[in-house]
Design a protein that fits this description.
The protein is mainly α. The protein contains 13 helices and three strands, in the order H-E-E-E-H-H-H-H-H-H-H-H-H-H-H-H. Among the domains are: about 40 residues, N-terminal domain of TfIIb (Single Sheet); about 90 residues, Cyclin-like (Cyclin A, domain 1, Orthogonal Bundle), CATH 1.10.472; about 80 residues, Cyclin-like (Cyclin A, domain 1), CATH 1.10.472.
């Protein structure tokens, strides 16, 4: 039996015990300060490594949750020190919630300033701090969820270990990390969308991404047209019926093997354009092209292929 299994068995035994094994008394007390389970009649220490599970409580807002929480924030890769360092609050209140006297605030300000300085001690940490701030800015502009930000931060840290930063801009590597994280978690963003919120060109982001995928051996599958349907339809304010028809068109096209070598965004845009006509919620090729980040010519070419090979009856 392993160490972990022994601990589980011991905890189960302690939870089930209701009587003292020495005298049979039910007068048992949990001493959380000493971490002991004690019989108050005979004084037997039944367990000396007792864990305080803590009372159950509810929080109705963020202030209550912070005041009642028993631990700090969870570890995160989006902060250079993973959120494990201390921080002096800007609220100017002590641990009891009382306002700090005015005569002490100047000293507290100096302590806060030096605390902020010593958190970043060398060039590597300064680089990481700057990169993660840029990652947070780009992610916020793109509306990316927290799991994508964590994955992108982890990819960037791996790139730093492999010395991929030398000779490249921090912003370019960060943008490539975000693009890779989006692809890995099936929340794809196009290179055009990422380039639009950075000062790095689309070609440079793509080049760094390819080097990163090869160097870090990232297991990233090619994006699929259906990955873009929901987002494009939401931006075009189309109904669920249009989404359903677009999915059906793409599935049929995949079944007939006519999507090979075609860009996923172009195929998704053409499928949405056809579905919008079939559902009487017409959108122009220009409107769809602007949302999808492709040209009208691309949509027309994919549209003709899908209509001809799937034998669709579309009244333009």
């Amino acid at each position: 039996m392993g160490e972990e299994e022994k601990k589980k068995e011991k905890k189960k035994w302690i939870d089930e015990i209701t009587r003292c094994p020495e005298c049979g008394s039910t007068h048992l007390v949990r001493d959380y300060e000493r971490g002991e389970l004690v019989c108050m009649d005979c004084g037997l220490v039944i367990d000396e490594a007792y864990i305080d599970q803590g009372p159950e409580w509810r929080a109705f807002d963020s202030e209550q949750r912070d005041s009642r929480s028993r631990t700090g924030a969870p570890m995160t890769y989006t902060i250079h020190d993973k959120g494990l360092s201390t921080e002096i609050s800007w609220k100017n209140k002590d641990s009891y919630g009382k306002n700090i006297p005015t005569r002490s605030r100047a000293q507290l300000y100096r302590l806060r300033k030096w605390q902020k300085r010593i958190k970043v001690s060398n060039a590597a940490e300064r680089n990481l701090t700057q990169a993660l701030q840029e990652l947070e800015r780009i992610s916020s502009n793109l509306g990316l969820p927290q799991d994508v930000r964590e994955t992108a931060a982890l990819i960037y840290r791996k790139a730093v270990k492999e010395n991929m930063i030398r000779g490249r801009s921090i912003e370019g590597v960060v943008a490539a990390s975000i693009y890779a994280a989006c692809r890995m978690l099936d929340i794809p963003r196009t290179l055009d969308e990422i380039a639009a919120v950075t000062r790095v060109k689309k070609r440079e982001i793509g080049r760094v991404y390819r080097i990163m995928a090869r160097t870090l051996k990232l297991n990233i599958l090619p994006s699929k047209p259906e990955d873009y349907i929901d987002r494009f339809c939401a931006r075009l304010k189309l109904s669920g019926e249009v989404k359903k028809k677009a999915y059906e068109i793409i599935k049929e096209a995949e079944r007939k093997h006519i999507l090979s070598g075609r860009g996923p965004t172009g195929v998704a845009a053409a499928a949405i354009y056809i579905a919008s006509i079939l559902a009487d919620e017409r959108r122009t090729q220009r409107e769809v092209a602007e949302v999808a980040g492709v040209t009208e010519v691309t949509i027309r070419n994919r549209y003709k292929e899908l209509v001809d090979k799937l034998n669709l009856s579309v009244d333009v």
